[in-house]
Design brief:
Helix content: 25-40%
Number of helices: 10
Structural class: alpha+beta
Oligomer: single chain
Number of strands: 20
Strand content: 25-35%
Distance between the termini: 5 Å
Radius of gyration: 21 Å
């Protein structure tokens, strides 16, 4: 089976001070520590697909939908054959609405749109015949499940493509939140960018696809030294070669409307009492690094909005990209808990299935019903910064089912009689 691959990288570093993607941190950046990039990987074998990864925290679902349509028109494919993912890096310009923060800068958003379009067009214009291999490994002791206080899924999956012109590209999937926290004021792609930079210094391109990070955090301190250490560990633990695969390109995308849950007057009153307890508190909330008092001030704004008319659904998407009988990527427009990723991996018909978060938009944290009843910040308070209402029960299971259907439907198009290079 013949595979063709194209690649492009565009600088998306802001020119000057910018608001960073942080809860409640409405101060602007103070310089640039390292450059930000938009990277595109275009693949062709049976079908075409373009995957674009941006060194950003998140893009809204509506922004991504419009961008996918423009990209698809520009390179003559369907919007469902385009995926735009972000890494979840918080030390990057604000590009989606966060309660308590200013609106994203319109000029920077136009700049991002142009870079995404250019990278998609360029990667499709330099397609070259390619061979591909797959490797799996582990990166132990650099992440933890901070909700359950246990060992995190430390698996890393890498797709390696070797073009006839000698150029090499690796797609890397490893799940972790960024290292840097709110005390950092410099623009940075965090360890995701550092990993890619090490690939580039070795003569190879890299496209980073983050995993299910909802409950997964780095174990080390939020410093640039730790950024370098984690980035180096991920790079070193990802083999440069793997098992050769029979390449295909089959993709699928499913719209997943997630129902929200209306809060009763009693719940709203209880929420107000809970929020009021934190006003003026200097205690640090560990998931955000901000004081409880600062978070409570923003949550009072949420309380006012929550009593108004709010959307009963949040639009999101599940996507799948099947690249061989052995390898697939399943992505969702939200920050998945690792339990959701485990359901997908266990149920997938493809042995090595990489799960991606922050794919084609952002619908907040996606977790199981059990996890939604926990006292963790992600379960009880985080939605107040991104939407007006919490998701209804069963949302995590619906997302897992949608991802499995997307994979299964795409995998059914594989012809078992296909052979390498036919």
């Amino acid at each position: 089976m013949r595979l063709e691959c194209g690649y492009s990288r565009k600088d998306i570093t802001p020119d000057g001070p910018t608001y960073l993607s942080r809860l409640g941190e409405s101060t602007k950046s103070e310089g640039v520590h390292d450059r930000l990039y938009c990277r595109a990987l275009s693949l062709y074998s049976r079908e075409r697909f373009t995957l674009i990864s941006c060194d950003l925290f998140a893009l809204s679902s509506s922004t991504v939908k419009a961008l996918k349509e423009k990209v698809a028109t520009a390179i003559s494919i369907k919007p469902s054959q385009v995926a735009i993912v972000t890494t979840g890096a918080g030390s990057t310009p604000l590009t989606t609405q966060i309660r308590g923060m200013p609106n994203p800068d319109e000029s920077y958003m136009r700049f991002i749109e142009g870079a995404i379009l250019e990278s998609a067009q360029e990667s499709n214009s330099n397609l070259s015949r390619t061979t591909a291999s797959l490797s799996t490994s582990r990166v132990p002791n650099i992440t933890k499940n901070h909700v359950y206080q246990k060992k995190a899924d430390d698996s890393i999956v890498s797709l390696h493509v070797r073009r006839e012109d000698g150029k090499r590209v690796s797609l890397v999937n490893f799940a972790s939140r960024p290292v840097l926290g709110p005390r950092n004021k410099e623009v940075s792609a965090d360890f995701f960018g550092y990993t890619c930079r090490l690939y580039e210094e070795s003569g190879e391109e890299c496209i980073y696809v983050n995993g299910a990070t909802g409950d997964i955090s780095p174990t080390g301190p939020p410093t640039f030294e730790e950024v370098a250490e984690v980035g180096k560990r991920v790079f070193e633990r990802s083999p440069r070669e793997g098992k050769d695969i029979i390449p295909f390109v089959f993709s699928n995308e499913i719209t997943v409307p997630l129902e929200t849950r209306t809060l009763s007057p009693e719940e709203l009153r209880a929420s107000e009492a809970e929020i009021s307890k934190y006003l003026g508190s200097n205690e640090i909330e560990p998931s955000t690094g901000l004081s409880q008092g600062k978070l409570a001030e923003i949550e009072l704004k949420w309380l006012v909005e929550a009593q108004k008319t709010a959307p009963s659904q949040i639009e999101s998407t599940a996507m799948a990209l099947v690249l061989s009988p052995d390898f697939a990527i399943a992505g969702f427009s939200g920050e998945l808990f690792s339990s959701i990723a485990e359901l997908v991996k266990l149920g997938s018909p493809i042995p090595d299935t990489a799960v991606a978060g922050f794919a084609n938009g952002y619908a907040g944290y996606i977790m199981s019903d059990h996890e939604s009843n926990l006292t963790a910040f992600e379960a009880t308070r985080a939605y107040r910064f991104f939407s007006a209402l919490p998701l209804s029960k069963g949302s995590g299971k619906r997302v897992a089912k949608a991802l499995l259907k997307a994979i299964t439907d795409a995998a059914e198009r594989i012809d078992p009689d296909d052979q390498p290079n036919d």
